[in-house]
Amino acid sequence: MASTLLKSASLSLLVALFGCSEPASEHTPLENTAGVSLSNIKQHIKTLASDDFQGRGPLTHGEVKTVGYLSEQYKALGLTGAYKGKYLQPVKMAMVTANQDMQLKVGDLSFESGKDFTARTEQLQPLIDVRSSDVVFAGYGINAPEYNWNDYKNIDVTGKTVVVLVNDPGFATQNDTLFTGNAMTYYGRWTYKYEEAARQGAKAVFIVHETAPAAYPWGVVESSNTGTKYTLMDNNLNASKLPVMGWLTLDATEKMFNAAKLNYQDLKQAALNDDFKATPLNLKANLAFKNEVSHAKSHNVVAQITGSESPDEYVVISAHWDHFGTKQTDTGPKIYNGAVDNASGTAATLEIARIMSKMNKQKPFKRSIIFANFTAEETGLIGSEEFASGAVVPTKQMVGLLNIDGMNVLDGTDYILQYGKDLSTMENYLAKAAKSQGRVVKMDPRPQNGLFFRSDHFSLSKQGVPSLLFMSLGDTDPEYIAHKYHKEADDYSADWSLGGVKQDIDLIVDIATQLANNGDWPKWTSESDFKAKRAQDKQ
């Protein structure tokens, strides 16, 4: 380990503080009503999204404040710690900060970090150096046998720099017979494209950013990829990971293709055919950047109500506690408080825990219920991935997962959004609970965004746990995605009615109560790796 020159993080004090809850400071006592208390919700969101919590960045003093506050709240409600009797599950991770004073050179062109491209790595090395690497356009960068699709079939990209399109061919064509049409598959996600390129032996991958198929503007790409990032650690310093995980602006891409005497738009169109052949640009890429690498433990917060009859069967209710922390800018530090994303969801888990704890005292639940607040969702679902490893509860013992990632903090609606279609029988529970509220289930209006693959429940779904995602990031507030999502402006507002929060908490409590008592094991209905994993677990 010493030979890697990994910088030891000055986090020992922080780590020592974990488990020693900091006082929640002076707050109005929480209400203990039978139903949802909007006063409690407001207090939790206001606290978690305050500047005092410094944007809830993992491995910062903001984490100490956050996990201390959450542990304190669960303990006060009478819940027990779910990790070996403790409220904090350690998540061994690395903190990687790429020096942004870098340039990408392709042929005679030079591109500026942040403005033209982003680049980072999950390899735990002090220096990433890509020299004289052949540049190849590999269409969508997809190898999907079930769709008879392989963009890598005619080329060896070992050691090469690969340029790929964002999303998948179905979105571009809107053809329901191509992949799943407008609805993004996992093959369209940036995480998959990096994973597949690593399997193919590539040295670097740059995803071409276009706002419509990416589902977010360049500003989101830049803010999400240029600060400190986090990753789980293996015993080989993540050597199997892709050396360079990058994005390119459309403008930079077109300049690159023009330099190669190729037409980007023509090749983009050609990539929609299953007989597309990867195309060399006959240009060399050069990129080097230094990394500050440290490693420490972050923490999930996990608490449980123990079942009276089947304590080893678990209903899981979750939300990630983290956001982007504090970023240094030319104009000084900026705190990204993440009030909606996801102080609102974290606050909801606390309020649901209070309500269900009160219910349990009246009539004990048959199954156990775990409340999990995950770390490092924003940087790759890291906390939930560690939770899915089984250190708290084996996934085969998890009945189902209800995950909250951004709530409707405005007025209530006559609908509830469903993410994914015909995936599992959990959707039946959603429909029934919505109907009891006089609401209808409305399908995700932006299936091309692939939201089912972008939040913590996906870590559990991959391990076979049927899951529902509760998310409201812009469907009731169109300005949110454009001006607040992953931006400094995502702050608490005293003007929020929280009518939507109340609705959805009531609905989640309804579903969780059913699952905690009825003995049902929800099933995957579509053929998938998720279904196969659950079937294997149930043999």
Can you describe this structure?
This protein is an alpha/beta fold. It has two domains: 49-78 and 306-537, Zn peptidases (Aminopeptidase); 96-293, Glucose Oxidase, domain 1, CATH 3.50.30.30. It is built from 16 helices and 21 strands. The longest helix has 24 residues, at 339-362. It is globular.
Structure at a glance:
With 539 residues, the chain is an alpha/beta fold. The chain has helices at 12-17, 38-48, 61-76, 169-173, 190-199, 211-214, 218-225, 250-259, 264-270, 339-362, 382-387, 426-436, 457-461, 478-483, 499-517, 529-537; strands spanning 80-81, 88-98, 103-106, 109-112, 117-120, 127-137, 143-144, 149-150, 161-165, 204-208, 228-232, 244-248, 279-305, 310-320, 325-329, 332-336, 367-374, 398-404, 415-418, 440-443, 467-470.
